[in-house]
Design a protein that fits this description.
By secondary structure, the protein is mostly helical. The protein has 14 helices and two strands, in the order H-H-E-E-H-H-H-H-H-H-H-H-H-H-H-H. A hairpin with a 7-residue loop joins strand 1 and strand 2. The longest helix is centred in the N-terminal third of the chain and has 32 residues. It is globular, with a radius of gyration of 27 Å.
């Protein structure tokens, strides 16, 4: 009987420990869970509910079902304009930004004295580039009387109003985005450090040039880093707002009306919060589709060591 009692106590103690250990785990992650439900899932649920209503901030939301989504896809020409402008911006800015980030990372990877200072200098635009102040400077830089046109006139070239010309306004925002390549550059630098030097030594012994080594070793080994940077830059570019709002305000004639700016106008200029919430959920879906497409295609061009 004593042995049975002791065995029963051990069994009960083991079951109790199996319950206590997970509880402590949940206690330690409770702050994160609280933030997840209160700051993420809660607002997202409220946003989805509002997307099914007509809400102007002054009156209670009135249920309209999927009417907001129907109007967006059938009657809203500005939605399609904003989507076209945003996709154009993403397609132009993301590859250029990654290209310059990789090229500069290759240059800054060399063991030169004071290289950390150069890296900090090149990373600085990523810290301040998204600010209102830099956007205002950029607007003045490409204005009719800005530095770009003054420099062009010095060379005998007739300048144009870059910001107020529909054919060139979006490209000024693309250049501002490409200028902020520092964050991707730092990640590329970390990836370059992980490539074994033995591979380059073996390639050199076999007579491979630096150009061939870049495409045969460096680029394939960096494809996981390229995938990460590509996904992050796509997500960030689709949400671009400050630059378009400060530099061009969506003009001229909606040539720089990016999606986030259009959403902002519907929400805070026309106080149509239900419609803006529907636009936000459509944007989430678009970003998810583009991200899924990148991950699907990565099976064909991303290489892992294993």
């Amino acid at each position: 009987m004593t042995e049975l009692t002791q065995a029963s106590k051990r069994n009960h103690s083991g079951k109790l420990n199996r319950w206590i250990e997970p509880i402590w785990g949940y206690v330690f992650i409770a702050p994160w869970l609280l933030g997840l439900f209160v700051l993420t899932i809660g607002p997202m649920s409220q946003s989805f509910y509002l997307s099914l209503t007509q809400y102007n901030l002054l009156e209670l939301p009135s249920w309209v079902g999927f009417e907001n989504y129907k109007e967006i896809f059938t009657d809203d020409k500005d939605f399609w304009t904003a989507l076209r402008v945003t996709i154009t911006y993403v397609v132009l800015s993301v590859p250029l930004k990654l290209f310059f980030a990789l090229m500069v990372a290759m240059l800054l990877f060399k063991p030169i004295r004071g290289m950390s200072v150069y890296r900090a200098i090149f990373y600085l635009p990523s810290l301040v580039g998204g600010s209102v102040a830099i956007s205002a400077i950029w607007r003045n830089l490409f204005g009719m009387d800005g530095f770009i046109n003054k420099f062009a006139s010095f060379l005998g070239i007739q300048g144009i109003d870059w910001i107020n010309t529909p054919e060139t306004a979006l490209y000024t925002l693309v250049m501002l985005a490409v200028w902020q390549f520092g964050s991707s550059m730092v990640i590329f630098l970390a990836g370059l450090k992980q490539i074994p030097k033995d591979l380059y030594e073996s390639a050199s012994v076999d007579g491979a040039s630096k150009f061939l080594s870049f495409f045969s070793i460096t680029l394939p080994m960096l494809t996981p880093i390229i995938l990460f940077n590509l996904v992050m830059q796509i997500i960030g570019s689709f949400q671009m707002f400050t630059q378009a709002f400060i530099v061009t305000k969506g003009g001229p004639i909606n040539s720089t009306l990016v999606y986030a700016l259009y959403l902002y106008q519907k929400a805070f200029a026309y106080f149509n919060m239900g419609y803006a919430s529907a636009l936000a959920w459509i944007l989430l879906t678009i970003i998810a589709l583009f991200t899924a497409l990148v991950f699907w295609s990565s099976k064909k061009w991303v290489h892992y060591e294993t």
